[in-house]
Known about the structure:
alpha+beta
Amino acid sequence: MNLKELQSTLEAVLFAVGDPVEPERLAEALEVDALLIKQMLENLTAKYDEEDSGLQLLKLGDRYQLCSRAQYGDAVRKVLEIRRNTPLSQAAMEVLAIVAYHEPVTKAFIEQIRGVDCSAVLSSLCQKALIEERGRLELPGRPLIYGTTPNFLRCFSLSSLEELPKPPEKPLQNEAAPTDDEKKFKEISSESQQKVDEI
Length: 199
């Protein structure tokens, strides 16, 4: 198989799989070197960007996913007759932020920060595939621990959690002039809310 055939095969596999997939898994399935697969994935990403394609290849942590671009979401929803879900509440955004910045975390840890029960919010975020159960702690009661998902990264346009903006040290309303980090934190929260609502 030459490089052009490999790229076409890789593209077909990514389209058929739909979900985020690791380069190593692709390499094993296609019986080629993992480094070559990673290079081909980078080539595909550049190809879609250069052609201003309706598709894009996202890097979500250590996995890749082929999907449509956000600006064509309305058209996709109309064809598939997908309704917008109820927007995330302020409580859900707060819980999501706690998980993202401190993962893996327990329900008790989240509730200690927020001061209220978070059972319903955690359940809702799990249903939206923004967070997931990561196992249990070896402590009395063996509490569940939670972490973010590739879907969270996709919705917030992040390649990894390291790209999250630094959270403001003080509430924005108490600051005379927000810092650049605070502005970025507020901006990404606002932009990402719309993407989350489309899940």
